[in-house]
Amino acid sequence: MKLLIVLTSHDQLGNTGEKTGFWLEELAAPYYVFKDAGVAMTLISPLGGQPPLDPKSDDPSAQTEATLRFKADPAALSILANTSKLSDVVATDFDAVFYPGGHGPLWDLAEDTHSIALIETMLASGKPVAAVCHAPGVFRHPKSANGQSVVAGKKVTGFTNTEEEAVGLSKVVPFLVEDMLKQNGGSYSKQADWMPYVVSDGLLITGQNPASSEPAARALMALLA
């Protein structure tokens, strides 16, 4: 089984002067769900090479068993430092796609034509796409064959408006994930802020927040099984 993990290359948090990127737990926890199941993973990003890590996700308070394992894993760190370019990827070579979040994807992956085409191709080929936290923002533009959003009529979740307010970035992000999913016709639901919550509907798997990344990865494995 061959899986793509798509990471952001964007490191600027709007006009705040602060850094952003991908959220460490949202890569690390799924990475080991897949690795321990024997899945062959390819990590990609728009620019290739080392994707930017959101420094807040490297804070001691944000560490989990998976993040500590990842940071002590030379092989994993080497794979992360050498991501392939998103534009070079042939979607048909893979069985599924997983998008970790962090705020970065709202700026680059949500608007990236190669990412949009990847999602459309995978879903049209009957292959699942999973995204957690801010990464469901990548569903902003992809369309189904009928011309509607890929989330139209689908049960979905993603980072909530109240979670965005809690981290003080509602006015910084280019769009709110919850609002966008609803505007695109998604049947959006959520649990309490910061609680694990995953929704599967057909080929789409979405997770609400960082705590949802491991269960989202497990949901993807169950779908592939």
Please describe the structure with a list of short key phrases separated by commas or semicolons.
225 residues; alpha/beta; Rossmann fold; two-stranded parallel ribbon; 8 helices; 9 strands; globular
Account of the protein in words:
- By secondary structure, the protein is an alpha/beta fold.
- It has a single domain, classed as Class I glutamine amidotransferase (GATase) domain (Rossmann fold).
- Helix content is 31%, strand content 15%.
- The protein is built from eight helices and nine strands.
- Strand 1 (2-6), helix 1 and strand 2 form a beta-alpha-beta unit.
- Helix 1 packs across helix 2 (65-71) and helix 1 (24-36) runs parallel beside helix 8.
Topology:
Blueprint: E1 2-6, H1 24-36, E2 40-45, H2 65-71, H3 74-81, E3 84-85, E4 96-99, H4 104-107, H5 113-124, E5 129-132, E6 155-156, H6 161-166, H7 177-183, E7 187-188, E8 198-201, E9 204-207, H8 213-224
Parallel strand pairs: 1-2, 1-4, 2-3, 4-5, 5-9, 6-7
Antiparallel strand pairs: 8-9
What oligomerization state is this entry in? Answer: single chain
Our count of helices gives 8
CATH architecture: 3-Layer(aba) Sandwich
Question: How much β-strand is present in the residues?
Answer: 5-15%
Order of helices and strands: EHEHHEEHHEEHHEEEH
Round the mean pLDDT to the nearest integer and report it.
97
Please summarize the sheet with the most strands: 7 strands, mixed
Using the coordinates shown, work out and report the CATH topology. Rossmann fold
The count of β-strands is: 9
